[in-house]
Amino acid sequence: MAKKEETYNEAIAKLRQIVADIESGELDVDILSDKVKEATRLIKLCKDKLYKVDEDVKKVLEELDE
After folding, report:
1. pTM
2. Which one of 30, 41, 46, 63 is most buried, by most CB atoms within 10 A?
3. Going by C-beta distance under 8 Å and a sequence separation of 6 or more, which residues neighbour residue 49?
4. pLDDT at position 26, please?
5. With DSSP H G I counted as helix, E B as strand and the rest as coil, what are the percentages for the chain, rounded to 5?
6. Quick check: 14 and 42 in contact, CB under 8 A?
7. What is the DSSP-derived secondary structure letter of residue 26?
8. What is the pLDDT of residue 55?
9. What is the DSSP letter of 27?
10. From CA 41, how far away is CA 47, in angstroms rounded?
11. SS3 state at 59
C-alpha cells in the first residue's frame, strides 16, 4: 500500500517541529542530518503544492475573464 502524501498543513507542522528540535541544540549530529534531509523533502513538497495551487487559481481567474 502506498504511503499517503502529507497535506500542506501536516508538512508545515512537521517543519515547525524540526525547527524547534534544531533550535533546542540537543540533537545528535546523525539525527540532525536526518532532520535536515526531512526538512528539505517537506520544503519541496510545500513548494510544489503552492505552485500547483497558484496555477489552479490563475486558471480559474482566466476563465472568469472569458
Report:
1. 0.81
2. 46
3. 8, 11
4. 87
5. 80, 0, 20
6. yes
7. -
8. 96
9. -
10. 10
11. helix
